[in-house]
Amino acid sequence: MTTSTAPGKIYLFGEHAVVYGEPAVPCAIDLRARVHATQRDDDRVRLSASDLSLDGFTIEYDGDQNARPDINVPENLVSAAVGYVNGAIHQARDLAGGSDTGLELTIESDIPLGAGLGSSAAVTVAAIDAVARELGATPDAETVAERAFQVEAAVQDGEASRADTFCSAMGGAVRVEGTDCRRLGEPDLPFVLGYDGGAGDTGQLVAGVRQLRETYDFADTTIGVIGDLVERGERALDDGDLDEIGRLMNFNHGLLVALGVSSRTLDDMVWAARDAGALGAKLTGAGGRGCIVALAEAADVATALEHTPVCERAFEASLTPDGLQQE
Ligand code: PMV
């Protein structure tokens, strides 16, 4: 059996704008997905997901993707999960020279699904690595990141940036601008996350921004302003200036509100975190529903979020330098 793990991420700055070639800075956080892969004697694939913030499921199929688990969870979440895992198996088999050996895969994840924390990227990165190694290949993290991006782009109909997959494979803070992906370092950033218990539809939210941009010049300008803000954010990260990072996170959230991707629940949590003394707070990822990230040391911020009616769960997280790893 081979086991690989990869972290989730938050966006410090730049989601959505990154889809149009602006830079973004995601940071890996210490919530991880773990994939165990074992070869089988036949050519079938059996997938068990024990903890994906779903009820958990097991499914056995022969690669035609028609098999579906018999459980009561939203069909779109299950088919997305199966799509990512199928894509990962395909990429890993290719890395291992085209093997069609059957596989037993078990996925465990601390990362809530569809909440803006990069759960699909983490599962895809860990699955490609675990399966490739189980089949005898030894890909480096950059190769796995690129293969994982190909999977995300296919499952998300081409509407994906390299941000999530590169960040999950490399760990730390990274900068992504189009195909240019770089690791920035491992600043010590304390985060508090607020989760409304829901999941945003990334495809729909990205399509909404695209439409707004086609209709209004100033939506396109807003996307450019997010890019300028990211450049400043990078300098603040370099200087270790947490106050400035917080101010820029607030500014970035305002621009995401203008692009129509926030919601009442996300805004309520952002304001609760700010009122409790966070240096800055913003939604993270596609938006709609899911998580906000606050830059805050204070336990007060987690407590304030826990007392915010729309917040289902608040938890502390910190930036992790550890990207893709084998166990
Ligand atoms: O919500 P997530 O973690 O899937 O992040 C989506 C981020 C977007 O910029 C909106 C899309 C992308 O692929 O970069």
Fraction of residues in H or I helices: 40-55%
Find the structural class using helix and strand composition.
alpha+beta
What are the segments in which pLDDT stays under 50 over at least 5 consecutive residues? none
Q: Would you report the number of β strands?
A: 12
Structural summary, described in words:
- The protein is an alpha+beta fold and 327 residues long.
- It has two domains: 2-185, Ribosomal Protein S5, domain 2 (2-Layer Sandwich), CATH 3.30.230.10; 190-318, Alpha-Beta Plaits, CATH 3.30.70.
- 41% of the residues lie in helices and 24% in strands.
- It is built from nine helices and twelve strands.
- The chain has a six-stranded mixed sheet. A four-stranded antiparallel sheet has the order 9-10-8-11.
- Strand 3 and strand 4 form a beta hairpin.
- Helix 8 (264-275) packs antiparallel against helix 9.
- The termini are close together.
- The mean pLDDT is 90.
